[in-house]
Amino acid sequence: MKTILFCNLPYAFSIMKPLADALEKRGDAYLWYISPLLIEQFPYKTMQHTDSIKELERFESDAIFVPGNDVPYWLRGVKVQIFHGLAGEKKGHFRIRDYFDLYLTQGPYFTERFEALSKKHKNFKVIETGWCKLDTLYNYTKQTHRDKTILYAPTFSPSLTSAKRLLSSIDLLSQEYKIIIKFHDKMDKALIATYQAIESERITISQLKDITPLLQQTDLMISDTSSVVYEYILLNKPVVTLESKSQNINWENYTNVQELEESVRYILEGKDKFKDKREETISLYHPYSDGHSSERMIDATEDYINTYGVPQNRKLPLLRKWKLKKLYKEKNYGW
């Protein structure tokens, strides 16, 4: 099977790296597509990659894995939606844009919703496989540490982020615990600067592109309405959020900053009342902890091709076709 890994945003690198590794292990031909705007940031330059849509056309793929919202409809291959997070409550997560033939879901919560949408739209199939990004999470060798360590990972969305309200709390908690901060790639630069002003031996702003090692190395996460909360929950570790809008909250969530601070101390002293409830979230969102979701995703796509073949076209409104042609014909995209 010839496969394209389609990347338009930097978070896609860590999502699809396990897929690339699995394809290499199988001996399959594959090609990363990296937006020209991101090519300098691409960390896996020894792997086959391109920033040219024309080269993708010549490649004539059988399948295209996409963690984003769109893909050039004219490229050959089964268009496979693999998602860029686990936060189903975020705007657009369950929006059907008609670009994809196959949706590979992470767990029953997502599968049930997309199966209902599949029956309505009748133009895509749904298979539950688990999520390739989490293979790294489950296969990562945990490093030991002596100090209790907090990971602060806020979302970037101005309407949802806790970063403005928690600056003083992070500074205060650092007097008792080590804190690692991981900002989203789209976080407001001015907000980042306010946290850089309080960096110290106790507060570190991580520059890692992949958050996975930080999930493994820390004891508790502080966040808000961010999909990374679910990744942390999948490790059966405690989370405390400020005004999360998530739909299935099985963790401590507060509207009051002082209560959040007290809860962090309470949990790190060993009083974790949500420990059992995290199992419910794990079973709904991602019950696959074997580290082999990438293989299941590849197998599911091959099964789709064996059953239905490679689609020759997608039925799209003319306006949507025009927008995609315009987007991917821009000079910055190598045409």
Describe the structure.
By secondary structure, the chain is α/β, with parallel strands linked by helices. It folds into 2 domains: 3-131 and 287-333, Rossmann fold (3-Layer(aba) Sandwich), CATH 3.40.50; 141-285, Rossmann fold (3-Layer(aba) Sandwich). The chain has 12 helices and 13 strands. The protein has helices at 11-26, 53-59, 108-121, 133-139, 167-173, 189-196, 212-217, 228-233, 257-268, 278-285, 293-308, 318-328; strands at 3-7, 30-34, 49-50, 63-66, 78-81, 102-105, 125-128, 149-152, 178-181, 203-205, 220-223, 239-242, 252-254. The strands form 2 sheets. A 7-stranded parallel beta sheet has the order 3-2-1-4-5-6-7, with helices on both faces. Strand 11 (220-223), helix 8 (228-233) and strand 12 (239-242) form a beta-alpha-beta unit. It is globular.
Give the arrangement of secondary structure elements.
Layout: E1 3-7, H1 11-26, E2 30-34, E3 49-50, H2 53-59, E4 63-66, E5 78-81, E6 102-105, H3 108-121, E7 125-128, H4 133-139, E8 149-152, H5 167-173, E9 178-181, H6 189-196, E10 203-205, H7 212-217, E11 220-223, H8 228-233, E12 239-242, E13 252-254, H9 257-268, H10 278-285, H11 293-308, H12 318-328
Parallel strand pairs: 1-2, 1-4, 2-3, 4-5, 5-6, 6-7, 8-9, 8-11, 9-10, 11-12, 12-13
